[in-house]
Design goal:
The chain has 157 residues and is α/β, with parallel strands linked by helices. Strands 2-1-4-3-5 form a five-stranded parallel β-sheet. It has five helices and five strands. Helix 1 runs parallel beside helix 5 (131-149) and helix 3 crosses helix 5 (131-149). 41% of the residues lie in helices and 22% in strands. The protein starts with a strand and ends in an 8-residue tail after the last helix. The radius of gyration is 15 Å and the shape is globular. It has one domain: Alpha/beta knot (3-Layer(aba) Sandwich). It has helices at 14-27, 49-60, 82-94, 112-117, 131-149; strands spanning 2-8, 32-38, 69-79, 99-104, 120-123.
């Protein structure tokens, strides 16, 4: 299975870039993984929020193939514990999903068309985190899930 993490805009903070790089490197031992960045919109401050979300969706969908299973990282999505998330990944592998794409949207969330085209939504927490921080948290949880599936000692219950 190929896992892609699609993100809106670059990660700016150096400490986050370093942390993300650590977990991306570790993921190489478990799964084909790639991180893709959707360029930030120009003049987004001058756009109505609905148009901004629509424009972000148009850029985002260029990265999707028809066969991809797309999961949005969304505050209203299903919440999983780490063990449950590892089971979710295992179920996708068992179902023969070839391309699993997780998407972190822009600051205002997703356009209605993004919700319609996605196969699911996951919330990382009831708390609100910056879009920059979500990238580190999600990458770590993805790594943690694979260590759980392999029975490795990284995760403690």
């Amino acid at each position: 299975m190929q896992i892609t993490f699609l993100q809106n805009g670059k990660t700016e903070a150096g400490y986050l870039k370093e942390g993300i790089a650590v977990f991306e490197k570790r993921l190489e031992h478990y799964v084909a993984y790639k991180s893709e960045v959707i360029p930030s919109l120009k003049n987004a401050r001058n756009m109505p929020v609905s148009r901004q979300k629509q424009e972000e969706f148009l850029l985002m969908k260029k990265y999707f193939a028809q066969s991809d299973c797309v999961i949005l990282l969304d505050e209203h999505g299903k919440e999983y514990g780490s063990v449950e998330f590892s089971s979710f990944l295992q179920s996708k592998m068992n179902a023969g999903v070839r391309n699993l794409t997780f998407v972190a949207g822009g600051p205002f969330g997703f356009a209605p068309e993004a919700y319609e085209s996605a196969q699911g939504r996951i919330s990382l927490s009831k708390m609100t985190f910056s879009h920059q921080m979500i990238r580190l948290l999600f990458t770590e949880q993805l790594y943690r899930a694979f260590t759980i599936l392999k029975g490795e000692p990284y995760h403690n219950e």
